[in-house]
Every structure is written in structure tokens, then in C-alpha cells.
Amino acid sequence: MAENNEFFREVDEDYRRDQFINIWKRYNVLIIAAAILIVAVAGGWNYWRHAERVRAEETSERFDRANRLAKEGKAAEAERDFAAIRTDGPAGYATLARLRNAAETAKRDAGAGAAQYDTLAADKGLGDALRDLARLRAALLRLDGSESAAALTQLQGLAAPTNAFRHTAREMLGLNALRKGDIEGAGRWFDQIAGDSDTPQGLRQRVEIYAALVAGGPVTVTEAKPENAAQPPITR
Fold first, then answer.
1. Range of the domain at 31
2. In a domain, 81, yes or no
3. 8 Å CB contact between 81 and 100
4. What is the pLDDT of residues 161-179, one digit of tens each?
5. Within a 10 A sphere around the Cβ of 143, how many other Cβ atoms?
6. Is residue 176 part of a domain?
7. N or C: more exposed end of the chain, with fewer CB within 10 A?
8. H helices within 72-165, ranges in order?
9. Is-contact 109 140, C-beta < 8 A?
10. 147 and 140 in contact (C-beta within 8 Å)?
11. pLDDT tens digits for 84-112?
């Protein structure tokens, strides 16, 4: 019985070997081509990864250099370098360069900086968080200008309960209302900040100061009276 089993095993092996030889004869070109393709793809992938890593490292150095130029007050040179990174850098650094370039532009021209942030906010290729960040910065740049009404509307949209930048938006809306003497409106925004469990601790501490200002009521400046007048020139 053992001899029969050995015989059958050898026959089976011979059969499989013959099958393999037949397959090789028929498809050897395709098999070799597939093997070469696999090796080429693997090599190309590794080369691409290496090239991208080198490119990212070089861009990181360029980005750091542009930041140093900005800190040194060399705005024109910094903007030039950020613009170059925006054009030929990897996607992540290109976006960072666009944000930094807008910030540098805003230092000398708030309107031009806000316009650059608008472009970022309209770029559907960016994530929602980055687009909202651009909207926030554009609104803050316009808050004290001729487009303040549009800026306030934009901040109100960013103050929604699920927005990542709601804390800053609410604080700016509250302070703007307080500055205009809208004590009730300021109180509503500060209450939203206080009632949000995710409000940062630093902002909570500032809100306590804001709340004290709100509790004091509006400050009005009246015409100064003679020195012997009983009423002081500033009343609450």
C-alpha cells in the first residue's frame, strides 16, 4: 500500500511539473513582463517617496527662511519667498505659504490681505477648517473698516456652535458690541462663551473681565461742567 501511495505521489508531481512547463511555454513572456512591471512599479514608488521627502525637507528650510525674513522686518523678501513656495512647493507647504503671505500683505495693506484670505476661503481644494480660518482673518481685518457690516455677518456665521473658531468669533462680536455701547448684545455673546464647555481657560478668564464691564452698563461722555458743578463729566 505504501508503495502504491509513493507511486501515485510521483505521478502527481510529474503531472504538475508537466503542467507548469506547458504553462511556462505558453505564457513565459507575459510572466516575465509582469515580474518586470512589479519591480519597476515598486522601484518607481520608492523613488517617488524619496524625491517627495527630499522636496519637503528643502521646502521646510525655505519656509523657515521666509519666516525669519518676516520677523526681521524684511517684508518684501519674505513675501517673495512665500510666493515662490506657494507656486512650486508641496501642497501642505504651499497652503501655509499662502496663509503667511496673506498675513504679511495685511501688515501693509489690510484690504489686500483680506482679499488674499477671501481667495483661500473660496478654495474648495482646502479643508473646511482652513477655509474658516481664512474667513475669520478676513473678517477681523475688515471689522474696523468700511466693510464692517459684512465682517460682522461673517463672524456671526463662524460663531455657530459647531465651528472650530467660534470662540474667537464670539469674543470679537462681544467686544465689538461693547465698544458700540450695545451692552445687551455684548452680554449675549459673552454668555455663549461662558456657557460653552469647550471654551479655553484663557478666554474664560477674559470673559470674567468683560462680564464686569457689561454689568457696569454703558459709559457716556457728557459735556464738561464748571469746576464747582456737582456732577462729574463721566457717568455710568
1. 1-108
2. yes
3. no
4. 999 999 999 999 999 998 8
5. 19
6. no
7. N
8. 75-88, 91-108, 110-121, 128-142, 148-158
9. no
10. no
11. 877 777 777 788 888 888 888 888 889 99
